[in-house]
Write a structure and sequence with these properties.
Length: 205
């Protein structure tokens, strides 16, 4: 196992920072590594705290009387200078429960009312996103959305379309569009569980 000797903050931003790590590998050779993090200081890094609190929340929600559509956003991202399909998502604010964050973010991004339901903790605990680059982790909340889509709650920096996709549209999206990987895997599951997409959540692990 490697050993970390020093962590140096390189930026001072509100939502995302870069840190330099000086370490040695398992055989004692020097290692210089960089990590991005939602932490605003070195003390908040997960490699320091040893805790895995959710930085963000991802919302997997079904829509419609028959629960046969899934709520997506088609969002412009500067990282690829293009649009990509994702689940509604956002950061968990200090002191906020991630389920509460899911309700708030769904309303802000889509105008829809979201009702999460409780599942086994193993299904919604925070999982890491891109561990080779960042210590960010996100919890997933599952539930049902209703209401009329609206973009009134968006910030000026957010550029997205609200998509209520049925299975045919999901097939097209997976074939033809850019899709975030977490969203893509869930959409594949949605396609093949027509009777009860959330049936797997009823089981305890």
């Amino acid at each position: 196992m490697g050993h970390i000797h020093k962590v140096t903050p390189l930026t001072e931003n509100k939502h995302l920072n870069m840190y330099a790590i000086d370490a040695t590998s398992k055989i004692g050779t020097p290692v210089h590594y960089f990590v991005s993090s939602r932490a605003e200081s070195t003390e908040g890094l997960k490699l320091v705290t040893g805790k895995n609190h959710p930085d963000g929340v991802v919302i997997y929600s079904l829509y419609g009387e028959k629960k046969d559509r899934v709520v997506l956003v088609r969002q412009y991202r500067y990282t690829i200078d293009d649009y990509i399909y994702e689940f509604p998502a956002g950061l968990v604010e200090p002191g906020e429960n991630y389920r509460e964050a899911g309700i708030r973010e769904m309303k802000e991004e889509t105008g829809l009312d979201f009702e999460p339901f409780k599942v086994d903790k193993a299904y919604e605990k925070p999982f890491f996103t891109t561990i080779g680059m960042t210590d960010e982790s996100c919890a997933t909340v599952y539930g049902y959305a209703c209401g009329t889509p609206s973009k009134c709650g968006l910030e000026d920096s957010e550029e997205l379309e609200i998509v209520l996709a049925d299975r045919e549209e999901v097939k097209r999206i997976l074939r033809e569009e850019k899709v975030a990987i977490i969203c893509a895997y869930m959409l594949m599951h949605f396609l093949h569980e027509e009777e009860e997409p959330f049936g797997f959540l009823q089981e305890e692990l």
